[in-house]
Predict the 3D structure of the following.
Amino acid sequence: MLIVQKFGGTSVGDLDRIGNVAKRIAKTKDKGNDIIVVVSAMSGETNKLIGYAEHFSKTPASQEMDMLLSSGERVTSALLAIALQDMGYDAISMSGRKAGINTDGKHTSARISHIKTDNMKKSLNEGKIIIVAGFQGITEDDNVSTLGRGGSDLSAVAIAGAMGADLCEIYTDVDGVYTTDPRIERRARKIDKISYDEMLEFASLGAKVLQNRSVEMAKKLNVNLVTRSSFNENEGTLITKEENIMEEPIVSGIALDKNQARVSLRNVKDEPGIAAKIFSKLAENSISVDMIIQNVGFDGTANLGFTVPENELENSKKIMEKLNAAENLEFDSNIAKVSVVGVGMKNHSGVAGTAFTTMADNNINIEMISTSEIKISMIVDEKYSELAVRSLHEAYSLDERN
Amino acid sequence: MLIVQKFGGTSVGDLDRIGNVAKRIAKTKDKGNDIIVVVSAMSGETNKLIGYAEHFSKTPASQEMDMLLSSGERVTSALLAIALQDMGYDAISMSGRKAGINTDGKHTSARISHIKTDNMKKSLNEGKIIIVAGFQGITEDDNVSTLGRGGSDLSAVAIAGAMGADLCEIYTDVDGVYTTDPRIERRARKIDKISYDEMLEFASLGAKVLQNRSVEMAKKLNVNLVTRSSFNENEGTLITKEENIMEEPIVSGIALDKNQARVSLRNVKDEPGIAAKIFSKLAENSISVDMIIQNVGFDGTANLGFTVPENELENSKKIMEKLNAAENLEFDSNIAKVSVVGVGMKNHSGVAGTAFTTMADNNINIEMISTSEIKISMIVDEKYSELAVRSLHEAYSLDERN
């Protein structure tokens, strides 16, 4: 098998941990696999360098930031190669450029355009373990670029796709994807397999295991993605095509996102295109609006409500006050979004009914609802949100399966 | 003018110092000059990374060491570019590869083969200040390489040569080249101009301002080299062609090297080729022998003496004891080499006489002598070596000129 293994900053956070990672790679190699490893910078390094840059400038040029920040991953890749060589394994480090990771020219948040696999194929043919510096690539102008947040995951998935790897393992400090946050519901169960689409919902609903960009790319390139812990030997969660999952449960898990805030407009002015004006103004300011509800009362007055990420609330306030689009404005950050996710819902009715009944049974008021083919999201008062998660987890019997 | 400025690890040792370096560069730019800057890693960084590598392996692969160690200079170059940009100057950082520094494949001690100047010329034409990560280049196989000790100086000199720079300034923490070590003779005077050949002698005789490799390259490429301090505005020492120096003094300075040890063989065995055997064995073990004297006594017994660097003495002992080439072996590390250097000697007699007379007047025994066209070196008892330096400094009136 050809396996891509990606180790994040915490997994390579100090020399002992790098040594442990080397042992884990060696074990995979001993089983007869070909391996490409992708590494992040040692945890803390990137922030240290950002601090250095900010000492000199509030707005450092992004091309220089890439030159600066790409050094951390190079260090880890060389150290890991040295550790493996000392254990008797033939290993070679590669910068993003050397690994053939070509990107567009958008420094500090570049997109991978294509991967030239020649160097990696050659080294694999020579039996070498390849250690790629993650998070980075090279622009058409031959300058180093970085891929932004979650960039090393992206490097790993893109390499797995380009090289036709059988598996892409993303190592973090958690065991995998859970039916819900184990800190909220201790009976939460690790999910063995999950589809790309469900994972995308989980990721965008606040689960922090993987970022959407990586899951999207895995889906596009049809990469079997595994998220697992670098600190134990537990099997992780496989994220794969829906058809690869034999028995899909109706509901896979419950997600909770407390970082939500609500903006409510009462008696919206009776102007043509007022809603479009509001949402285009927010978009201009890069504020991502999530749920929207609008209703018109018996008296003809229109009310409008929508949610934004909590850290965008202040900014949203300013914009809304300036727009002066309604008689009355209200802002509420004490809300949370509880979501029921499951591919199986597509073919089963009654899933939403169970959710609403469960909330009613617990006297939890649902303030907003939005649904997609594979999820139901509900905005509730933040103080009831954990109760909502536990109740739903039980209602769908998520702790029973094995 | 096109000026290359090189700043070593101490000069960019922390963020404040990098800020000061930026101001100095800006000042040179404001005078209307084009500037290419070459930087080292922040002091301590390279040693930290070497320590990391040694945690994993006593013999890390040199290619991986280059991947590892080349990161420090990249960080400094990006930070300095950011600092200059924030001051309103158009600056761009370049890795060794981007600056076109091509080397052979000898990792960790690569030699520069040629420099592709396209990228640098393009950026200079755009009015940019170029900040090159020193100490590094790229091999024919497209792997990063490093140039070994003093590598950033080499990068600077090679770039100055390839770009036809008017001046190559090497910034360190000392003001320039002195007639002798000011800690030994406080009347030591900074030399304004000195020829390449004299500087080569000074460098190989223990002066630590510049390494031989850089001076040799400057001589070969005819680069006007200046060594000066980054901590003050004093003019430094210009190292240039002999014909550029109008009035060459007979003696330029006195050098002292205490890191010398002597090996003495009494009653060397009467075997053909015994001396060749000794010196080839030492050469095999990479021990550089400096001075050699041999004499045959009236009774036909031969004595042989030579000097080695002090840190090679233990190794030399083992080799000599194994060779068993003489009846009697003696080792002495309490010696020092005092040298009188000056291009003017070539055309003046009596220089050596003054040296020997001075030593005799001070009752200092000269144990060995070696001379070249432009220097006289004497081995003396280490405890008299500083007295020797001061006496010679006075004898040649080195503190009088201005």
Q: What stands out?
A: The mean pLDDT of chain A is 92. Chain A touches chain B through 37 residues (CB under 8 Å).
